[in-house]
Design brief:
Elements lengths: L7 H11 L10 H6 L4 H25 L8 H23 L1 H7 L10 H11 L4 H31 L1 E2 L2 E2 L14 H24 L17 H7 L5 H10 L2 H7 L1
Antiparallel strand pairs: 1-2
Helix pairs in contact: 1-7, 3-4, 3-5, 3-6, 3-7, 4-5, 4-6, 6-7, 7-8, 9-10
Length: 252
């Protein structure tokens, strides 16, 4: 990996925007859709997940050389489950209202694909400092996503934000938004905004990412070209720059 992307700022920005786990990678949908009925619940789930992400990434990174390859996944689950238990007990003792509101979704953090995915894709292959900031970035991105969804759903669906009345007395709450369909509607709205921002940024680099069947992956088209998934001129430029066999045959 490029060393530039291993800096703390790059890791945090990666989790917040570049690879936001909710709006870009579409991971952790169970807690995202179920616990965002209010901004308070969203903050509680986001912060608890962030703490577990940082601690599990650090521990897995420190132990990566002593964990046998065939025992990798079970070891990760045990490490993550241990930190989930610690966080669950702390929430029960210090924030009982949030603990009661989140309920079963706190222990279910053990199987949250965001945490397992970062352990497998990053923490198990990088040093502890980089892994901590990677977990922190992903956790902040997850928390911000939950907070945005939860705030919109609470304001539109109940007329409050963090339990405080923020709408005029004449406003009639749209109860749909605090139900399951409302979660999907708000989620789709923010995913559309994120896609628009990313495609717009890719176009400003000098070429249209949707041209020629490209999926809009922007600067990552080199990876698409290797998989034969991208037919845009960005992939051709990358292929030519890397001297691939296909370009050489075409030149011949």
């Amino acid at each position: 990996m490029n060393s530039r992307k291993d800096t703390p700022i790059e890791r945090i920005w990666n989790g917040i925007y570049v690879e936001n786990p909710v709006f870009c990678l579409i991971l952790g949908m169970c807690p995202t859709l179920a616990t965002t009925t209010s901004a308070t619940n969203a903050i509680g789930m986001g912060l608890s997940t962030t703490a577990i992400l940082v601690m599990s990434n650090l521990m897995i990174s420190l132990m990566k050389k002593i964990i046998p390859g065939r025992m990798r996944i079970p070891s990760y689950i045990v490490i993550i489950a241990s930190f989930v238990t610690i966080v669950e007990l702390l929430m029960e003792g210090f924030t009982p209202a949030v603990y009661a509101a989140l309920g079963i979704y706190i222990p279910l953090i053990v199987v949250n694909c965001i945490i397992m995915g970062r352990a497998e894709a990053y923490a198990g292959k990088h040093g502890p400092i980089e892994s901590v900031f990677d977990g922190l970035g992903m956790g902040i991105g997850f928390t911000l996503a939950l907070l945005l969804i939860g705030s919109v759903r609470e304001i539109v669906g109940a007329g409050t934000c963090f339990g405080i009345k923020v709408t005029p007395a004449a406003y009639v709450p749209v109860n749909l938004f605090i139900l399951a369909p409302g979660a999907f509607l708000v989620m789709a709205f923010f995913v559309a905004i994120m896609n628009k921002l990313k495609i717009g940024a890719a176009r400003r680099t000098g070429w249209d990412p949707t041209e020629g069947g490209c999926g809009g992956c922007g600067t990552e088209c080199m990876n698409c070209a290797k998989l034969g998934m991208c037919a845009g001129k960005g992939s051709e430029a990358n292929a030519e720059g890397n001297g691939t066999d296909e370009v050489k045959e075409k030149d011949v």
